Amino acid sequence: MQAEDVLGRLANATGVYRGRGDGPESGPFLGRMAVASIVRGRAVTLDYEATNDHNGLQHVEHTVLVAGEAGRLELHVACLELPGVVRFTQTKPGEFTAYEGPLVARIILRLPQPGAISYAWWWSRDESEPREQSRAELRRTG
After folding, report:
1. Domain of 49?
2. CATH number at residue 109
3. Is 77 exposed, middle or buried (0-12, 13-18, 19+ CB in 10 A)?
């Protein structure tokens, strides 16, 4: 997958994706992501949430995927766990990194096959390299 393909592929694969997730930080959960193309395909919104039977709604996120000024893809993420909107810049195809704020964080966004999204959050609470804390495997349902 070419780096620039992520935006185009998602712009052409809008809909609601649902599936399961797990991770050392999140534990097992159900994930839902609504993908919408905006501004004639120049940006994509990802509205993501994770729920489980024990905690109910445990994560809500609104993200915009767009090509930045330099042409590299960027995720602009708003969720309660972050201090405001945080920009994640693509460093490799499907890998977005942020060095802003107290946590070094990474989002891994993969499109393994048509109608499927793999969405993972990586971070570290200390100086070590980020590691995967939560990952959802989602399939388009509508």
Report:
1. 5-140
2. 2.40.128.20
3. buried
Domain tally, the chain? 1
What sign for the dihedral angle of Cα 112, 94, 101, 60? negative
Rounded Cα distance, 32 and 138, in Å: 7
Q: What is the Cα–Cα distance from 47 to 34, expressed in whole angstroms? A: 5
Q: List, for residues 93-130, the tens digit of each pLDDT value.
A: 999 998 665 667 899 999 999 999 999 999 887 777 88
Q: How far apart are CA 57 and CA 14, in angstroms?
A: 23
Task: Write down the pTM of the prediction.
Answer: 0.91
Structure tokens at 84: 């405001």
Task: In whole angstroms, give the CA distance from residue 56 to residue 50.
Answer: 8
Any idea what the Cα angle at residue 7 is, between residues 4 and 9, rounded to 5°? Answer: 100
Residue with tokens 């767009």: 66
